Write a sequence for this structure.
């Protein structure tokens, strides 16, 4: 577990983020910014908060839902009813002093409150206004709501995921939300750099659909190059053979990732066969054409020994391979622990354990300063910093504004 004592300031120390986003995609972006040292004020609904606070079980012993804890560490929680004039005034005051605002409302959803980019940039021209929506700020579908699962279907991602003879599958986590959150983070950081030379902020527009389409990568390019509709191949690779899951004795599965002709020749040496000399299998294009035949023969060979045996001999021969871990096995890997991919907030008095940030910076590393906040934990301190006195805060609470 990482030692969170005496850690240096992060790369984004001094950057202030006003987080109006909720659920997963937007908050995943703002958590990255927070991990990198930015001050992030998360705005939540009074008494209810982000709905992921209630997506349980499982929960930690302090009643923090695991889902909420996934993407809300290092943040401050401020509750505000933005549908009220007084609530909008609070957000506008915060926006004037913020570097970045992140939101994932439907297109135009904040305009009626005077909290859209065009309204806020007049009082803070340096504001970077980051919007994450299902379909983007433009186009015929811009007004439609976006959901990861639906976008996985619409984008073609599900059409290439799952067994070839079964129904399309979604990815096991909300991968479109998370990729879009990463791309929003990249866009924000690019806008920060641009602001250094222009002195002005801008709007960053990222859409789940755009993100998912970009994620098609080589499979999408296969279609653009050939005009053919990519098939669903299960655990097989569309362009490389053999590059898939095989089973040793007892149906214990492992991954073989034989990426070039040299590695295939080494594989043949390990298996004591001369298939690499057979014109049907000599080159990767030939192996792709003879995928079914070759992989059938490989399956027979691999069934003769245990998975442990094959992983040892393949690794020794320099042939890429690996076990298929469950989540517990993956998080317990010595490599994962050495890379601080599991963090513990016990020193901050919290029972939350969380997945670490994969970004490793040598001089200004990510920091884990605070566990996910309790709902409204920072409302009083945030309002006090804005100039509200105790009587004003008490009235805002009595009126249900905060």
């Amino acid at each position: 577990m990482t030692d969170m004592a005496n850690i240096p300031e992060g790369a984004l120390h001094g950057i202030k983020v006003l987080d109006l986003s909720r659920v997963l995609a937007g908050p995943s972006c703002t958590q990255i910014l927070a991990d990198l040292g930015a001050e992030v004020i998360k705005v939540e609904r009074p008494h209810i908060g982000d709905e992921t606070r209630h997506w349980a079980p499982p929960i930690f012993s302090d009643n923090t839902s695991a889902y909420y804890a996934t993407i809300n560490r290092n943040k401050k929680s401020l509750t505000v009813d933005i549908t009220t004039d007084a609530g909008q005034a609070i957000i506008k005051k915060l926006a004037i002093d913020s570097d970045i605002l992140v939101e994932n409302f439907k297109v135009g959803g904040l305009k009626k409150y005077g909290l859209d980019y065009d309204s806020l940039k007049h009082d803070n021209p340096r504001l970077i206004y980051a919007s994450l929506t299902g379909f983007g700020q433009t186009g015929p579908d811009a007004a439609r709501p976006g959901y990861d699962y639906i976008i996985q279907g619409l984008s073609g991602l599900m059409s290439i995921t799952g067994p070839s003879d079964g129904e399309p599958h979604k990815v096991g986590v909300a991968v479109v939300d998370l990729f879009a959150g990463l791309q929003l983070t990249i866009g924000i950081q690019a806008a920060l750099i641009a602001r250094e030379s222009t002195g002005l902020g801008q709007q960053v527009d990222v859409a789940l659909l755009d993100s998912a389409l970009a994620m098609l990568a080589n499979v999408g390019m296969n279609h653009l190059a050939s005009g053919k509709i990519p098939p669903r191949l299960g655990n097989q690779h569309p362009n490389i053979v053999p590059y898939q899951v095989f089973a040793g004795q007892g149906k214990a599965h492992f991954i073989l990732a034989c990426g070039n002709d040299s590695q295939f020749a080494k594989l043949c040496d390990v298996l004591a066969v001369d298939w690499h000399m057979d014109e049907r299998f000599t080159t990767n294009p030939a192996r792709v054409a003879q995928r079914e035949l070759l992989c059938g023969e490989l399956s027979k060979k691999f069934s003769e020994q245990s998975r442990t045996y094959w992983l040892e001999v393949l690794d020794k021969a320099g042939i890429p391979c690996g076990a298929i871990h469950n989540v517990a096995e993956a998080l317990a890997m010595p490599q994962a622990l050495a890379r601080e991919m599991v963090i513990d907030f016990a020193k901050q008095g919290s029972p939350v354990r969380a997945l670490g940030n994969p970004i490793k910076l040598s001089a200004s590393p990510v920091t884990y300063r605070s566990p996910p906040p309790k709902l409204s934990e920072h409302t009083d301190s945030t309002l006090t910093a804005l100039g509200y006195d105790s009587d004003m805060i008490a009235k805002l609470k009595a009126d249900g504004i905060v």
About this structure: The chain has two domains: 16-216+360-398, 243-324.
